[in-house]
């Protein structure tokens, strides 16, 4: 298959935000794709070489990329730099410069998807001394034979900048239409995706054997499962109402969620967004290896502690993300792991077991293995509001951010946010009482002390049904100088010259960004707003919902933009907030 068809489809997709037309572009690409390369095509669309959880990053250095562009076109680095500083994107730069050269070339060999993918793979695997020269040679030779539009997407991919804005949801719609004729089987596909997190394998099975092929997908250690999530609730009364007066409550610790996979001697740890984080926690790997069970999948929260085992703020976990001094950081920044679920045990998928049964099995695993640093999360079964309040106070005094509530009979619903799990955070009795995870979509330039940084950032909710981001507030407070500096540098990578096609906003900003980075925000009120577009028209025509007095609390490195708080969650909170404000 020619890569030109893929590059043209990418270009068409970049120019549209409508979910229907994105789906149509995908369907026509998938229909033309031979079965033996469908996996590769899916990963390329996702800007990856393998499923995201493998964590293989191409991320070619900018300098090397500029040199390969210069070498392949036969111009100086200075000339490339000039166009780059004008256009601000190396993909656009190579397309513009090579258009001139391309018109003079009489014949070039067509490049195939296989060739492009295999070259990317070689680049990813090249390391050690001399690797820069090898990479340069590989990129240059690919660019030599590429058309301008092919070059554009090759470069974007290599830099890790290929963000076509295709949500998983859209991809699954397209797979359903391509292989079953309509969207009706999307739910079946999603169900399987939730337990294997690999759309490449799903597409391949669909292409080979149709929808029945997906029966083959089973929960397996070393393949992360999309996490089950919780819904916010207003307080003890609502919890009891929703659970028929009997609920399991667990401490809600504020650290890093981890899925622990063991398959004999191999252990992998995955974050909430299913990235591999095994290397950050050699102490957890060691502890897990000492459990005398061959295969399992556990879920837990990792929290930082001090030398006296007191729980510390989650920010301390940042020290574990550094690539150097790992041994030293292990000792200096100890952690503890609190298990709260078990999803697989010795060849058995436990996700269809009731919560209370899984909890008993988890207790047994912990009791039979004396594993240092690994503990069970505190849990109680409660049936009265007074009990909930007491356990809640105990949780807060013990350093938790609140409580999680789990329906006793609930199965583990991978990837879902329902009322099977509910959460109550410590701010619940205050005016608004929760944090929001919102995506940065724009910024105002800073003035005075903030000159050279951003003065305020425009934040948005995300709606997966429409694959759109909706502005809900501007945040300018709560940042340290270090935060401002970090965000300024980080956000540079995502600057675009007009709003992203998926963004819906009425705001005027100095700078726009691709929706990538997620911030956690605390706010004290939600109000109707004529200028913000989150939950637009849902309460009042031409009005959306705005967060008032927003304050930055942290960067959510563990969340993708598509994991941001949704407009409907904001709407639910608005309703809870209104109830609290009007007594009775
Ligand atoms: P949050 O900002 O609250 O972490 P989230 O979107 O990451 O939100 P939620 O489902 O809303 O996820 O809240 C559950 C999170 O709380 C989990 O992702 C996990 O990291 C953490 N957590 C702490 N203790 C528990 C527990 N006992 N059971 C489940 N999750 C827990």
> Helix count?
19
Structural class: alpha+beta
Tally the beta strands: 21
Mean pLDDT: 91
Percent of sequence in beta strands: 15-25%
Largest sheet: 8 strands, mixed
The outline comes out as: globular
Distinct ligand kinds: adenosine-5'-triphosphate
Quaternary: single chain
At the fourth CATH level, what is the homologous superfamily of the largest domain?
A: DNA ligase/mRNA capping enzyme
| Fraction of helical residues | 25-40%
CATH C-level class of the largest domain: Alpha Beta
What Rg, in angstroms, do the CA atoms define?
Answer: 25 Å
| CATH topology (level 3) name of the largest domain | D-amino Acid Aminotransferase, Chain A, domain 1
Question: Architecture of the largest domain in CATH?
Answer: 2-Layer Sandwich
Number of domains: 3
Unreliable stretches covering 5 or more consecutive residues? none
